[in-house]
Amino acid sequence: MTRVLLCPPDYYGVEYEINPWMHREQPADLPRARAQWREFRRILAEEAGAEVEEMPPRPGLPDLVFTANAGLAIGNVFVASRFRFAQRQREEPHFQEWFAERGYEIVRLPPDLYFEGEGDAFPVGEDLFAGYHFRSDIRSHRAVAEVFGLHALSLHLADARFYHLDTCFAPLDERTVAYHPPAFDDYGCRVIRARFQDCIEVNEADALRFGCNASVIGRHVVLNAGCDSLNRALEERGFVAHPVDVSEFMKAGGATKCMTLLLR
Amino acid sequence: MRSETIEVQGHIIDSLILPRVLDEILSHEGTFEILDVDIGQRRQDPSRARIRVMAPDDEHLESILTAVRTHGAEVPGEGDVQLAPAPCDGVFPEGFYVTTNYPARIRCQGRWIEVEHPRMDCGLRVDPEAGRAETAKFGQVRAGDCFVIGGRGVHVMPPARGRERNVFEFMSSDVSSEKPKRAIIREIAGQMRQARAEGKKILLVGGPAIVHTGAVPAVVALIEAGYVDRLFAGNALAVHDIEYALLGTSLGVSLENALASEEGHEHHIRAINAIRRAGGIRQAVESGLLRSGIMHACIRHGVEMVLAGSIRDDGPLPEVITDTLAAQKRMLALTDNTGVALMVATALHSIATGNLLPVTTRIVCVDINQAVITKLADRGSFQTVGLVTDVGLFFEELLTHLREPQ
Fold it and tell me: Mutate which of A23, A85, A109, A112 to test chain B, going by most B C-beta atoms within 10 A?
C-alpha cells in the first residue's frame, strides 16, 4: 500500500509571492481551501487507497500544506530540502523533526545546494528525474542521486509558471509519463522521450490547470478538476482519474501533487 | 582571446547536460576544446568532463561562465572572492567588481554572505572578520577597505521573471501614453497600501511641476494620510510650494485663475528671502509664518526630507544641501527599506534615486515627457512602471483610489 504524508491547510494562505501564481491581492478562501483539502484527502484514502499520514500544521507557515517539497524519502532515508526562498526555509526544521521522530536517517545537503524535494525529484526505477533552474540547483541532483545510488537525469525547466518539475511532469509508471513539453527545453524533451515508451503530451489548457501536478497512487491518479483531455488519455491507458477541485491551492501555485509526499 | 577551464560532473551523458553546456558556449560566441572525459563505468557512476572555454574577450567569457554555471559547470579552484584594499580614500582597487541593482551574495572563507544594500554602480566592500559585505559608492571608500576584485565568488540573483499579472512586471518593458491609467494607478495605490502594511517606507521624489500643475492639495492630503515617509527633491519644489503658500502663485502664476500676477516674477525670490529670514523651513513652520503646502505638511508629519541643490538654484533655502556628495550620502541613508518610490516630474532626482535603490523596490515614474521614464529604465531601473500623464491628474486619481474603502 502506498503511504503518503499530508499536512492540513489550517494556516494556509497566500502571504508572499515567490512564484508567478501567487498574488497577495488574490487571497485564499480558507474555509473553502479546508473543504477542498478534506475532499482531496478522502479521495486519496478511500478511492485511491493510499495510507495517509498527517503532520501538524504550524501557524506562520502557510505553505507547509505543500508537503511534496519537504524532501525526498526512500526507505528509511530522508534527504531534507534546502529551500531557495527564506519564506519557506522556515519549514525545514518541522519536516526534519517529523522524519527524525519516526526513525528516519536525515541527510542534509550543503547549504548552497538548493533542493526542493519531490517538487523537483522523481525516482523512476533506477533513475532520478530531477528539475533545476527556478528552485533546485542542478548540483544537488548529483548529491541526492549518490545518497540513493540512483542515476540522475537533470531536466532544465524553461518556463517560470512551471517552476517545479512536479508542475509539468508526472511519471505514471515505469513506461508512461505525462508531461507538458513547452515547460522544458529540447534537451529535456529528448531525455524524457528516450526514457519512457509512452509519453502523454499534456496540452496547455490542462497544464495550466496543473494536470501534471497529479498524485499517482498505483493506477489511481488524483488531479485537479477540469483537465478533460488528460483524464481521457489516462483512462485510455487503464488509469483511473479522480478529478478534485483544488482551485484554492492553485492561488499559491500548487495542486494535488504539491500536497502529497510519497513515503516510498 | 580569453580562456578558462570548466568542469562538468554527474550523469552528464544521459541527461544531455554535456551537449547542452557545449551548446551554451557556442551560442554565446565562444569555442571549446574538450580536455578529457571520464565516462562512468556503471550506469549510476557519474561522468566528468574538463573543457577549455575560449571567448573573444572578458565580457563574452563571463557571460559563457554565467550560462554554463546554471547547468552545473564549475570553474575548478573557484571559490572565495578575491579581495584587494582600496589604495586611498574615494578610489577602488584596480580590477574592482562593479555591482548591479540585483540581490547578490559572495563566497568568502567558504561561506556565502548576502550583500547588504544592493544597488548599482558600486564596489563591493567586504569585512571578512565580521562576515559582512555591502555596496559602497566612491564617496564611501576609505583607504585600506577590502573590495572584491574580478567576478569570482560573486553570485548575482536576478529575480525569476515570471508571467505575473502585475503592472510592475508586464507594463515595465515599454512606456507609452496609451495605457489604461486608471487601472495602473489603482494597482499603484494597492502597492502603497501593501508597503505601508509591511512596515516599508514610501518615498516621494518630486519636481516643481507638482506645484505648477496645482497638485499641492492632493500631495498634502497624501502626506496627511501617512502615504509619504520620505521626500527627495531640489530647491525648486520647496521654493514654489512656499511661494504658493505665502503668495498664492507658482513662478508668479496664480494657481486659482492661471493668470500671471503683477510683479509675479519676484514672488519666488521674496518667498526664499522670507524663509531665509526665518532661519529655515522648520523655523518658518514653527513660528507660524508657513501655514500650508507640502513643506508645511512634511514638517508637521515628520516626513524625512532631503533637498539636494543644483547650480541654477535661487537662494537656496537653508535646508538645501549644496554639497552633492553630502546630499547623496543623506539620500543613501534614507533609501533603506523603501517599498515604493514615486518619482514625479523630475528627471535628475529620479535617476539619482533610481541609482540608489535595489531592483526589489517598486518604482513608479510619472512624467508628462515619455523620455524621462525611458531614461530611468535605460539606466537599469527595470522595475519601473512608467506613466505618461499630467502629475496633477495623477495625484488626484491616486488619492481617490487610496481613499476607496477596502
Answer: A112
